[in-house]
Amino acid sequence: MALSTFGAIMGFSAEMVQQTEAFYETMFQKAKDPILREALEVLLEEEGKNYSLMERTRRENVTEMILEPIAGLDQGDYEIEMRGMDQTKDADLLKMALILEERERRFFSEVSDKVPLPEVGRIFRKVAQKKERSLARLKTLGLNQF
Amino acid sequence: MVGRIKNYINGEWMDSEIREFGDVWCPATGEKIAEVPLSTAADMDKAAQAAKEAYWDWRCTPPLTRARYFFKLKDLFENAFEDIARTLVTEEGKTIDESRGEVRRMIENVEHATGVTTMMTGYNLEDIAQGIDCTAERQSIGVFGVIAPFNFPAMVPWWFLPYAVVSGNTYIVKPSEQVPMTQTRIFEAIDECGFPEGVINMVHGARDAVNGMLYHPDIKGVSFVGQSATARYVYKACGETGKRVQALGGAKNFVLVMPDAELDRHMPSLITSFYGCAGERCLSGSVLVAVGDVYKELKEKFVAAAKALKVGNGLQEGIQMGPVVSKKHKEKVLGYIEKGIKEGAKLILDGRNIRVDGYPNGFFIGPTVFDEVHPDMSIAKEEIFGPVVALIHVKNLDEGLKLIENSEYGNAACLYTTNGKTAREFKYRAVASMMGINLGIAAPMSFFPFGGAKGSFFGDIKGHGREVFQFFTDTKVVIQRWT
Questions:
Q1: Which runs of consecutive H residues, i.e. helices, occur in B157-222?
Q2: For residue A63, what is the nearest residue in chain B, using CA coordinates?
Q3: pLDDT number for residue A1
Q4: Cα of A65 to nearest chain B Cα, Å
Q5: What region does A14 belong to: left with phi over 0, alpha with psi -120 to 50, or beta?
Q6: To the nearest 5 percent, what fractions of chain A are helix, strand and coil?
Q7: What CATH number is attached to the domain comprising A55?
Q8: pLDDT for A78-121, tens place per residue?
Q9: Contact yes or no for B391/B230 (Cβ under 8 A)
Q10: Residue A1 lies in a domain
Q11: Mean pLDDT for chain B?
Q12: Domain total in chain A
C-alpha cells in the first residue's frame, strides 16, 4: 500500500513501532542472558516512548502542508517476516532485534526526507539516529556470545 | 432507525419545541445517518434566555478562572481528538487528515483564547488633566452567537466561541443543519467540562433558528461564516437590530504561477490548494492563472498531478480527496461544469463520472480542469465550492492582478515565484486579505485574523487573532478626579 498521505505515514509509523514494542515484550520474557534481557528492556522502554511520540506527532504537528500528496513511499518496502517470534534461543532473539531496529532505522531515515513538514522530518531523523545507536549497542553484544 | 440530535440549552440536552427534522447524510456512502431538529425561534429564545440568565455571574468570574475552564476543555478535546475527527469525516466527507487538521485548528483557538489575561487588558494614563486620571477598560457585553457553515463544522464556531466566552460573554452556537453531529460531539466535551449552566448553548436548525438569533433582542452580536449572499443578509439584519456583526462570505481565489516558479517543488501544494477538502473551503484555489510562458508546462504537470489524486471515503488513510457534502451540492457543482462547457471553456480533465469502488452512492466528483477559460465566464467568476479548476493564461503579473481586482470577492490570493520583487509587488497590490507566497492555502492560524475583503467579508473585525477580543468587549473609558 502506498503511503501517499501524512496520515497514512503516521498511521504506519505508529503501527510499526507498536508491533516492535509487542515483540520486544515477548522476547524479553524468553531471553535468558541477563545482558540481553537488559538490552531488550531498554529497547522496550524506548519503543513505548516512540509510540507516544508518533501519536503526539500525528495529533499535534498539523499544518496545511500535511495535506500535500506524498509520492514514492510504500509500506511494502518496510514489511518483514516476523518468524523470529518462534525462536527461544538468545542468539536468534538478538538477530531478530537487529532486524527490527534496522527496519525502523531505514524507515525513519528514508521517510524523514519525504514528509512535507520539516519539524516532522526532524522528529523522524532523531528516531533514526536513536535506532542507529541501538543497533550499535546490540552489535556489541555479539551473536556468538550466547 | 437513525439517531435524533438534540439541542443543548442551559446545561441540558433537550428536544426542539417542534418535531420537524432534517436529514443528515454520510457523503461517502450516500446513507442517512441522523436526524437534526429544525429548531424554531422559540428554541433560540430559550437558549438566549438561559445565556442571558447565566451572563452576570459569568461576567463577574475572574478572567483567569474563566480561562481554567478552557484549559480543562483543551484536555477533553485532546482525549476526544480522533473521535471528533472521525465524526467530522462521516458527516462532511473530507479526508481524515483534513479532518485532523481542522480539529487541531479548533483546539489552537482554545489555546489562544486562554491568553485572556493579557489579551483583554485595557490601558490608562494619569493626569489627562492635572489630578485627573483616565482608564480604558474592556468589559464583556452579553450574549453572542455564531451561525456556522457546513464545510468546517468543528473549527469555525471556535474561531469565535472561546474568545467570546473567556472574555465574559455567554454564547449560542447554531451549527449547519447539514453537519450537526460534529459540534454535538464537541458539546459532549463541553458538558463534561462543567461550565456553569447557560454559559454555552447550542441550537440546531436552519432558517428559523438563524432568524431567531438575528432578530433576538437579547443577543448582542453575531458571527457568521457562509455564502456571501447570506453574509450580506446577516450583516443587514444585524444592522437593523443594532447588533455587532462579523460576517465572513464566499470566495473566488486566484492562484498565480510565474514563469520562474519552481513547479515540481510546489506542485503538491498547488494540488492541495485546489482539491483539498474537495474544493469546499473559502481558501481553496479556484482560478489557476498561468503567467507568460509557464502555461504549457503548468497545464501538463497540474493535470497529471490532479489525475493521480486518490478519491474515496475520507475515513480510509491514504485517500487524498473525499466526496462533496451532499447530493444537492454535487448537482450544483456538476451544473457549473455543464455551464463551463456551454460557455466555451475546454474541459481537459472531467471528474463528472468518477467511480469509487465500494461507494456507488457517494457524492463524489473527480478532479476537474477547464482550460481556455475567459474571465467573463461563470466558472471564472462565481464560487463553485467544488473540485473544479479554471485555468486562465495571462501575459504578465499586471494582467493577473487585474483579474483579482475585477473579482467581486477578495478572500485569498496566492503567488508562486522565485523572485522577491515580484512577490512584494503581488502582496502590495492584490486586493485580497489572505495572501500566500509559494503556498496555496493562506490560512491564518488562531493568533492572526481570518477574513477577506470586498464581497468576502461584511463587518470590521475579523475572526480570531488579537483583534477578536475587541469584537467581544466594549471599551469603557473611566475618567476620575479625587483631588
A1: 161-166, 180-193, 207-214
A2: B101
A3: 83
A4: 7
A5: alpha
A6: 80, 0, 20
A7: 1.20.1260.10
A8: 988 776 566 778 888 898 899 999 999 999 999 998 888 889 99
A9: no
A10: no
A11: 97
A12: 1
Domain interval for residue A61? 6-145
Residue A144 has pLDDT above 70, yes or no: no
Q: Which residue out of B81, B89, B97 would a mutagenesis test of the A interface target, given it has the greatest number of A Cβ atoms within 10 Å?
A: B97
Q: Which residues of A touch B (CB under 8 A)?
A: 1-8, 11, 58-60, 62-70, 116
Tens of pLDDT, residue by residue over B130-162, are 999 999 999 999 999 999 999 999 999 999 999
Annotation: CATH topology of B3-249+456-481: Aldehyde Dehydrogenase; Chain A, domain 1 (3.40.605)
List CB contacts (< 8 A) between B276 and chain A: 64, 67
* Structural contact between residues B190 and B162, judged by C-beta atoms closer than 8 angstroms: no
Show me where the domains of chain B are located.
Answer: 3-249+456-481, 253-437
Each residue's pLDDT tens digit, B107-118: 999 999 999 999
Radius of gyration of chain B (CA): 23
Q: Which CATH superfamily is domain B253-437 in?
A: Aldehyde Dehydrogenase; Chain A, domain 2 (3.40.309.10)
Whether A110 is covered by a domain: the verdict is yes
Amino acid letter for position B401: L
Q: b/e per residue, A47-83, with b = 16+ CB within 10 A?
A: beebbebbbebbbebbbbbbbbbbeebebeebeeeee
> What is the model's pLDDT at position A117?
85
| Contact in structure between B228 and B252 (CB atoms under 8 Å) | no
To the nearest whole angstrom, how far is the Cα of B202 from the nearest Cα of chain A?
A: 27
Instruction: Give B82's contacts in chain A (Cβ within 8 Å).
Output: 59
Low-confidence ranges of chain B (pLDDT < 50): none
Active site residues of B: 282
ipTM over 0.85: no
In a domain, A83, yes or no: yes
Q: Which residues of B touch A4 (CB under 8 A)?
A: 310, 318, 320
Whole-number pLDDT of residue B379: 98
Task: Kindly list the residues from chain B whose CB atom is less than 8 angstroms away from the CB atom of residue A64.
Answer: 101, 272, 276, 439, 441, 443
